[in-house]
Design a protein that fits this description.
about 725 residues; 10-stranded antiparallel sheet; 8-stranded parallel beta barrel; 38 strands
């Protein structure tokens, strides 16, 4: 059993294939942590793991007992104000103004499988044998409120998910002012904190910092998970590398404001927390009402950062993403945006599709500008009906013409936004997020629709569903180009205004749920000004996301490398675009642009009608190569080898290996050419040491142990034949 209970000592032992998570009911009825880490054998008692002794200058919970203090023990879901002086996981404001609570163990149940979270995306089990869930009920008698802590163990996938649900059975109202999803107390603070930080066009760069006493955190208050920070945090030992050493990961399945923090106390122990950001948050619970926190997914690895990543990749690719497209090979697409921007007509679009089909492209995507009177980014968002000036025969006929070529057709929407210059805003100016009598800020000349209101979500659903019903559309790019400001809603009373940001995200999820349910054949790709909402929450509905608006091959090395810390290759939209690159102006070869983009959901963003015959032949070969290898790329094991964030950072390499180790694809990239270089090697990972392999294009065979132990000498094999900046090579490896 992956969940074991010692009744006499009231201890819970959660076991995955490689990890143990142990906690108990303490003498005060609250839950205390005992251990989280490498798998331990089960014992009838783990009492020897719990120890506390008298310490000066603290407070103790029971009169006459000068030893037991919550200031000193590790806890599962800690509160503030009853001898623990660290930041709490939750806080409940009561009618008299008190914030003091005492949630004690009431009962628990263990069952096979996993229940859905109401209104929220989450990991899932396809049958009861895939996962085991422990639900513990904590109860505060004084206020008649329950907290149900849920732990799901994915034994074979080696991960544990956690969440909390608050239920008010009392007659008095209570307010949740803080409700995080998970708290982990670790026995020491000898860690480096690893985070994914950035901005538009440079999302999810890996940042490390050593833990010090006090609080260190990342967060978003933008109404989305954001490009600036990602809802993920890892703690690794200072000596931990990609492939060796201990690391703890915490990833939040949520797309809104979040907080991830570590607090190091005066005894150098670390408390890791992640959940909805308490800043500007409050949730009113009346009698009979409940609140569900988002799910957090915990991963422990003693095989380095890459070991942690592979666990997240397997779980998120197969038991977070879902639907028809979860396991299917993704089509090679072309998007017209960088080819035309807003300046196109029906003939131009059809010509682009025709030329793309000749090159082997499988899906044509019509981006922004097809609706309302959209000639620039100043109008028409919210008016989701075709612009007959550009498309006189309408979206349906254009889609039929393109699918008649033997291609699929996709369409861009930005459903959460509205332009002031639009029919929708003229009819419903009250349907936007705003505060009366205050200035309304804007971003990209647009305002945010109030998705915390059901009637707004219903209206947008009606418009989108009509387009998807009428036309043969198999792909939707769902964009979102604006953060929230002046957060307020005319649809909710004053005492619920601090719920609006979370209710908004619930509205986004509900729209996704309705559309993916009615149109299961449609592949949804999430986008948010590029990668401003690339998070696990949206992966539940859209199995791939636009990784960044920045398609420069050199910058994409960092973006894709950092993104892979948590997210599978299959989730990363990665396209070849025109040069000079539209975001940074850099000129890289068509070969290198493809060599980077192969490691993702592959496509193009350029005007193929303007390409030379030689370039078209190159593109044909690239598409042929990707189709031949996309199953391996999208479903294989991913290994990071050389790090673009290293001090030198001139070289990057990564590798994807099939589950049976019979084939692999290695990408190797050098940013700047170096004069008179010394011998350089790349060391493979994940191969079978006993297998003999060929490498496409080389007249030699290699055993797996040779490629992993001795490496492949790059100077000898292809890379430096024609030295140049921004050079790259992809090696296809196959078992003999």
């Amino acid at each position: 059993m992956p969940i074991l209970y010692n009744g006499s000592t009231r201890e819970f032992h959660l076991q995955t294939e490689k990890t143990s998570y142990i906690f108990s009911v303490m003498e005060n009825g609250q839950l205390g942590q005992l251990y989280y880490g490498k798998k331990l054998r089960h014992r009838e008692s783990f009492e020897r793991l719990f120890h506390v002794e008298a310490t000066p200058n603290t407070a103790c919970t029971t009169e006459g007992d000068l030893v037991f203090s919550l200031d000193l023990v590790k806890q599962e879901y800690p509160a503030y104000g009853t001898t623990d002086f660290r930041e709490p996981a939750y806080q409940v404001l009561q009618e008299g103004g008190s914030r003091i609570t005492d949630f004690v163990y009431q009962d628990h149940r263990i069952f096979g499988g996993k229940e859905k979270l109401e209104g929220l995306p989450a990991t899932y089990a396809e049958n009861d044998g895939e996962a085991t869930t422990l639900e513990i009920t904590l109860y505060d008698q004084e206020i008649d409120v329950e907290v149900r802590l849920s732990y799901t163990v994915f034994e074979e996938l080696d991960a544990i998910s956690r969440s909390a649900r608050f239920i008010n059975y009392g007659e008095a109202d209570v307010n949740l002012t803080r409700a995080l999803s998970v708290s982990i107390d670790l026995p020491d603070a000898n860690f480096e904190m690893v985070q994914l930080s950035g901005a538009w066009a440079r999302e999810r760069h890996i940042k490390n910092r050593r833990l010090v006493p006090g609080l260190q955190s990342i967060a978003s208050t933008r109404g989305t998970s954001s490009a600036q920070q990602n809802p993920f945090l890892a703690l690794k030992r200072p000596e931990t590398t990609e492939h060796q050493g201990e690391v703890y990961g915490a990833s939040l399945v949520y797309s809104g404001n979040f907080l991830a923090q570590v607090e190091v106390d005066h005894y150098d122990t670390a408390r890791l927390m992640i959940g909805i950001n308490p800043f500007d948050f409050n949730w009113l619970l009346k009698n009979g009402e409940s609140f569900q926190t988002p799910e957090a997914v915990l991963v422990y690895s003693d095989a380095g950062l890459n070991g942690m990543s592979q666990t997240y990749h397997r779980l998120y690719r197969t038991r977070l993403a879902r639907g028809k497209w979860r396991d299917r090979e993704r089509p090679v697409l072309i998007n017209n945006w960088e080819a035309t921007y807003f300046d196109f007509n029906e003939q131009k679009i059809f010509e682009l599709a025709q030329s793309s089909k000749e090159l082997g492209v499988e899906l044509f995507v019509l981006d922004d500008g097809w609706f309302g009177k959209r000639d620039a980014d100043t109008s028409s968002l919210g008016d989701w009906f075709e612009d007959k000036r550009k498309l006189p025969n309408g979206i349906t006929q254009l889609a039929k013409a393109i699918t008649g070529l033997g291609m699929e057709f996709g369409l861009w929407f930005e459903p959460e936004m509205v332009s002031k210059a639009s029919d929708l805003y003229n009819a419903h100016p009250d349907w936007v997020i705003h505060v009366p009598n205050r200035r309304m800020s804007h971003g990209r000349n647009q305002l945010v629709l109030d998705f915390s209101r059901q009637e707004v979500v219903d209206y947008i659903y009606g418009l989108m569903a009509k387009v998807l019903r009428d036309a043969p559309i198999s792909y939707v790019k769902w964009d979102m180009n604006r953060y929230m400001t002046e957060v307020g809603s005319l649809g909710h009373p004053a005492d619920r205004q601090r719920e609006v940001a979370h209710r908004y995200i619930l509205g986004v999820y509900s729209l996704y749920e309705r559309l993916t349910s009615e149109f299961p054949h449609v592949l949804f790709e999430s986008c948010a000004g590029g990668g401003s909402r690339f998070d696990p929450g949206l992966l539940h509905y859209a199995p791939q996301g636009w990784t960044s608006d920045d398609t420069d091959a050199v910058e994409r090395l960092k973006i894709q490398y950092g993104t892979s810390l948590v997210y599978p290759v299959s989730s990363m939209g990665a396209h070849v675009s025109a040069v000079p690159n539209h975001q940074v102006g850099r000129v890289t070869s068509l070969e290198t642009r493809a060599n980077v983009a192969y490691f993702g959901a592959f496509g193009y963003e350029l005007d193929v009608t303007m390409m030379t015959d030689e370039e078209k032949e190159q593109v044909k070969e690239q598409i042929r190569f990707y189709k031949e290898n996309r199953s391996l790329i999208q479903q294989g094991q991913f290994y990071r080898i050389e790090n673009p964030f290293a001090e030198d950072g001139n070289r990057t390499s990564w590798l994807v290996v099939s589950d049976d180790q019979s084939e692999a694809l290695l990408g190797y990239y050098q940013v700047l050419s170096t004069p008179n270089p010394g011998l350089s090697r790349v060391f493979f990972k994940g191969l079978n040491p006993e297998f003999e392999y060929t490498i496409e294009g080389l007249d030699a065979t290699f055993y797996g142990d040779e490629l992993m132990g001795a490496g492949l000498q790059l100077n000898r094999y292809r890379l430096n034949e024609h030295p140049a900046d921004f050079s790259s090579v992809v090696y296809k490896v196959k078992r003999v």
